[in-house]
Specification:
The structure holds two protein chains of two kinds.
Chain A lengths: L5 E5 L3 H13 L3 E5 L2 H11 L3 E4 L8 H10 L8 E5 L4 H9 L4 E4 L4 H12 L3
Parallel strand pairs in A: 1-2, 1-3, 3-4, 4-5
Helix pairs in contact in A: 1-5, 2-3
Chain B lengths: L3 E5 L3 H10 L4 E5 L2 H5 L7 E5 L7 H10 L7 E6 L5 H9 L4 E4 L4 H13 L14 E3 L2 E4 L4 E4 L2 E3 L3 H12 L5 E2 H9 L7 H14 L7 E4 L3 E4 L2
Parallel strand pairs in B: 1-2, 1-3, 3-4, 4-5
Antiparallel strand pairs in B: 6-7, 7-8, 8-9, 10-12, 11-12
Helix pairs in contact in B: 1-5, 6-7
The chains are: A alpha/beta, B alpha/beta.
């Protein structure tokens, strides 16, 4: 049996972490979570997820900085990262997408959209 | 000079439709939100596909409308799936100037876009907020801060009204309790997740048959769907 793709979710907000984890599970993925960015970077290196759902406003370092660090790990250089954040300012969205994000989902979010984006990232056509 | 339109879509069917429906336009295509946001224009017409590879068209509309550099753009959202008045209303409330389900009637599409351009006196003005929200018999007026079902006024506290308004502005989106505490209760007020649940319960009961439109999501948050 093919192992389920693994999704890493990094969010300091327990409600969103929990909702996103359930949606990723619904997409057919195994889920690992981290409440802080640095822990997320560490888990990404260890777990080698198929995709990463990354909050931006995290207490230790920003999700953008975490994405830069993740990208420097050769094995994770092409892992899809979707930013999942309340930050909807134009400059923030542009910065996130410039980092090569596979997606940018603004909270509050449409659960169907998040499900579709996770599926598209872990099961590319 | 030909009118211009920026088209943000990765869908080849939509690109073909736009080319055939808008022969008199200079069209410039961007395959993603990222490509368009590299250097977004301050003026002009932008046709946005609701399903972009990197973000939803509805979010892109809100982002562009919310920034003073791009708030003067004329934004046309083209949605997937059959036409639904709710999707159209939501798109307009999010800041789109026009909404079409795809594929629209080519002649109507072109005529509406030309009308929009003809009215372009707009230059970075703040977006016009809807005077009221209507969902069947439920009518909410943000200006007057009133809600009614049919002719009957719904009595709401200031906090309940703010909650309802927040749900209306975020229809179809999951809202976590903590976000409601931040965005509606605001800082400085002592409240916890239980306070949110109790207030939502009260709001549901005051809204009568519309109360069920505020649904609980996994016991962690709420979603307002008409």
């Amino acid at each position: 049996m093919t192992p389920r793709p693994k999704v890493l979710i990094v969010d300091d907000e327990p409600d969103y972490l929990s909702i996103a984890a359930r949606i990723a599970a619904k997409a057919g993925c195994a889920v690992v979570t981290a409440p802080l960015a640095l822990k997320g970077v560490e888990l990404a290196e260890k777990e080698r997820p198929s995709m990463i759902l990354l909050d931006v406003g995290l207490p230790d370092i920003s999700g953008f900085e975490a994405a830069r660090r993740i990208r420097k790990v050769p094995a994770l250089a092409r892992t899809p990262i979707i930013f999942f954040t309340v930050r909807s300012e134009l400059d923030m969205v542009s910065e996130g997408l410039k980092l090569g994000a596979a997606g940018y989902v603004i909270k509050p979010f449409d659960p169907d959209e998040l499900l579709a984006r996770i599926k598209a990232a872990v099961f590319p056509a | 000079m030909k009118p211009g339109a920026d088209c943000v879509t990765s869908n080849p069917h939509m690109a073909d439709f736009l080319k055939s429906a808008l022969p008199g336009f200079r069209l410039k295509f961007y395959p993603s939100a990222a490509a368009f946001l590299k250097s977004p224009p301050a003026k002009g017409l932008v046709v946005i596909d609701s399903s972009l590879p990197d973000m939803s068209g509805r979010d892109l509309v809100s982002v562009l409308r919310g920034d003073k550099k791009t708030s003067g753009l004329l934004l046309v959202l083209t949605g997937g799936g059959p036409y639904s008045p709710a999707a159209a209303a939501l798109s307009l409330e999010n800041g789109a100037d026009e909404y079409f389900s795809f594929p629209p009637d080519a002649r109507l599409f072109s005529a509406r876009l030309l009308n929009l351009l003809a009215r372009t006196g707009r230059s970075g003005d703040a977006p016009v907020k809807p005077a009221e929200y209507r969902f069947g018999a439920l009518i909410i007026s943000p200006e007057a801060r009133t809600a009614s079902v049919g002719a009957a006024r719904v009595k709401l506290t200031a906090l309940e009204f703010d909650l309802l308004l927040y749900f209306l502005k975020n229809q179809g989106r999951v809202v976590a309790r903590t976000v409601l505490l931040e965005q509606v209760w605001k800082q400085g007020l002592e409240a916890g997740p239980r306070a949110v649940d109790k207030r939502i319960e009260a709001l549901r009961s005051r809204l009568g048959k519309f109360g069920s439109k505020i649904r609980t999501v996994f016991g962690l948050g709420y979603i307002f769907k008409m």
